[in-house]
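Following up on my earlier message about zinc ion. Here are the inputs again, as you asked, copied directly from the submission form:
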Amino acid sequence: MADCNETIRQLYAYLDEMLDEVLKNDIALHLGDCPDCQGRVEFEYSLKLNIRARAQEEPVPDELRDRLLGCFNLDLEAE
Ligand SMILES: [Zn+2]
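Thanks, got it. Here's what our run produced:
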């Protein structure tokens, strides 16, 4: 089964449904078992929807995306 690091690493691909079935199931299994990662997925998912909604009006600055990703990595290391 995927661990937390693996799940975080694949999170964007997972949300974009770009993973193959095996990996996707693996991540889904971990999510079913791990409230921490579930929370992250929900957060990222709502963020993604937000960004997508905004992107219809204006392009998303890369810098903002990088900063958000940076926050995310910091959280992970703090655990
Ligand atoms: Zn986890």
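One observation from looking it over: Residues 4, 7, 30, 34, 36-37 surround zinc ion (CB under 6 Å). Hope that helps, and feel free to reply on this thread.
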